[in-house]
Amino acid sequence: MRYHKIPDETVRRLPIYLRGLMVSADQEREHISSQSLASFVGIEAWQIRKDLSYFGDFGTPGVGYNIYRLARGIKKTLRLDVIRRAALVGVGDLGSALLAYPGFRVYGLDIVAAFDIDPQKIGSTVNGVAIENAAQLDTLRRRDISLAIVAVPRDAAQATVDSLVAAGVKGILNFAPCKLVAARRIKVITLDIAMELARLPYYMPRAEQAAETVLKMDDG
Amino acid sequence: MRYHKIPDETVRRLPIYLRGLMVSADQEREHISSQSLASFVGIEAWQIRKDLSYFGDFGTPGVGYNIYRLARGIKKTLRLDVIRRAALVGVGDLGSALLAYPGFRVYGLDIVAAFDIDPQKIGSTVNGVAIENAAQLDTLRRRDISLAIVAVPRDAAQATVDSLVAAGVKGILNFAPCKLVAARRIKVITLDIAMELARLPYYMPRAEQAAETVLKMDDG
DNA sequence: CCATGTGAAGGTATTCACAGCC
DNA sequence: GGCTGTGAATACCTTCACATGG
To answer: How confident is the model at residue A3 (pLDDT cuts 50, 70, 90)?
Structure first.
């Protein structure tokens, strides 16, 4: 399986395994079986083994996976083996929360710059990061920042992306609720929070009203 | 196709169409073709037609889709045709940002209650929503709130979910970076923001360092 | 004996191409 | 002529079962 392209769905699950391994690493044990990891992260054991088989022999039959070695392997595959510097554009409510969020560090991701257009915000510091004028986005290239988070209002999102791409950014995580266009070589992942909440009701059993209706029907 | 189960991937795309239709509705036109909607939301036209075919005949050949009627149809399918009341647990940086976020309204979702354990926060108001004591989560049932957003630290997430389920909540959007267990009938969607950012590097072309390495190899 | 890694089977989603309707 | 809705083909992903190796 070593020569096979890694399926997108596997790439989506790798960070989950990594997260699980990090937490497991705190325990004393040096190895972990696909079975243990499975119950910890909530994904079936055979799925984990299959996923890992796409890019390396990390396990030892009869023993399991060396936690440290596997974590390294996944990081390398995801290209998270170097510290990645990221920029944030848009320091509103969500942007500020992201600056304060400690979770990125786990993956070797570091928000080292923040931009906004509000003169009131420019110059101030949020969580140790100075807020710069969004007009200076073009400085990103020489600062070796190729990853960006877009947390600006929808109407400003496309222009922001254009500036980021011009500044040499190669990957963008977008929180604005709209489609963004960029050259094929640029990877854009859009994460619309409201949309995730919006698909919950579909999976929920019919609400109280429905139950009430059933009761009434029984009564009648 | 009307009798077929709607694929999960279709359910995931429906909110995108809905979002696109809402914005399109501002224009004068009454109808929209799968082609126009496709270029607007960034999904292929045949994919849209196929998705819509799973749950109704909304289009008119030669004309397109009536924007209003289609939006209604999608809302009904996603069970977003009634206003849904949601509760937020954990009013930290992210939680506060979510309270301020206007995007939920588009889908008929309304955060009407917020909870925290910090005495400093309890009693205060954020964006018009009073922050209550998290110990009072059990009041959700009689307040007709069956949707919840979990934005508490990882260590508190599972206990929060347990309380929510006990309080009659049927759907949970979780921002804590961990697996959560709940009865099968409860739908839990976990959204780990850092994880999304973490899979960006995989799709990015090799960084400057790599390019340099190649150059050196050429030199040697 | 235990746990991995993987062919093969089965299932689901994507993509195509076009018949049918306005 | 234009556009929808959908069977059929294709591609992709999941799931199983077991051969293989420590």
So the answer is: low
